[in-house]
Task: inverse folding
């Protein structure tokens, strides 16, 4: 295998498959689609001549609309292991047969950097399951972005997921590093969320984080944009509830 990322890292990325396919990574979620064929159709000639080609397409690369245009974005997770049991999630704690994949921040940053250098991707969406608490999970997401920005001098598109229960200082740092951050509300009300993810606290873990993001944008002039996401229609939520959030 000529691909310069260690084979075990590439295989772990491949095993993620479409783990984040329903996570909106860009500005137009309905237009996001898996990159077809090779990870990117046209590899620059100078790089392809070196023979550095991925052995098979990565299902976790999607074509995403970003503020800088349409780009191939790696949609990845630090780990698919999780201690929470959200009913809608394929990686919830209660699914004992689900294969669990984990990366260190160095591994994820190295893998992305090599693929970006070869022209396979030009953007990163990074989420994670929660192991050892939300703060630990958020630290690993932030550490990965730190490595990309500082060690590899990557200046392109980065979208970081904010974990439920993340600390305010973590959110501040994520917004300093990322072009976009997101907090998944999942349900439009406390009652709806309890039916989807009974271990999540709607007001304290989610809404409070969105308030902090709003404050940081206004008071500290942080430019990172913010989006949220809902699981629509699974627990009887109404259009009015969704529009009233």
Result:
């Amino acid at each position: 295998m000529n691909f310069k990322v260690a084979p075990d890292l590439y295989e772990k990325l491949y095993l993620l498959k479409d783990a984040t396919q329903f996570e909106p990574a860009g500005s137009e979620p309905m237009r996001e689609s898996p990159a077809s064929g090779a990870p990117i159709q046209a590899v620059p000639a100078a790089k392809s001549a070196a023979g550095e080609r991925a052995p098979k397409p990565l299902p976790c690369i999607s074509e995403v609309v970003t503020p800088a245009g349409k780009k191939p974005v790696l949609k990845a997770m630090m780990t698919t292991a999780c201690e929470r049991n959200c009913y809608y999630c394929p990686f919830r704690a209660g699914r004992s047969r689900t294969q669990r994949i984990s990366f260190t921040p160095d591994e994820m940053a190295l893998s992305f950097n090599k693929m970006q250098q070869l022209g396979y991707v030009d953007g990163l969406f990074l989420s994670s399951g929660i192991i050892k608490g939300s703060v630990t999970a958020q630290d690993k997401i932030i550490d990965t972005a730190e490595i990309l920005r500082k060690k590899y001098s990557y200046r392109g598109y980065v979208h970081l997921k904010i974990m439920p229960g993340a600390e305010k200082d973590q959110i501040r740092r994520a917004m300093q590093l990322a072009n976009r951050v997101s907090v998944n509300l999942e349900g439009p009300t406390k009652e709806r969320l309890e039916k989807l993810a009974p271990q999540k606290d709607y007001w304290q873990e989610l809404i409070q984080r969105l308030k902090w993001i709003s404050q940081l944008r206004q008071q500290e002039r942080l430019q990172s944009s913010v989006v949220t996401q809902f699981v629509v229609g699974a627990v009887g939520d109404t259009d009015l509830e969704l529009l009233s959030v």
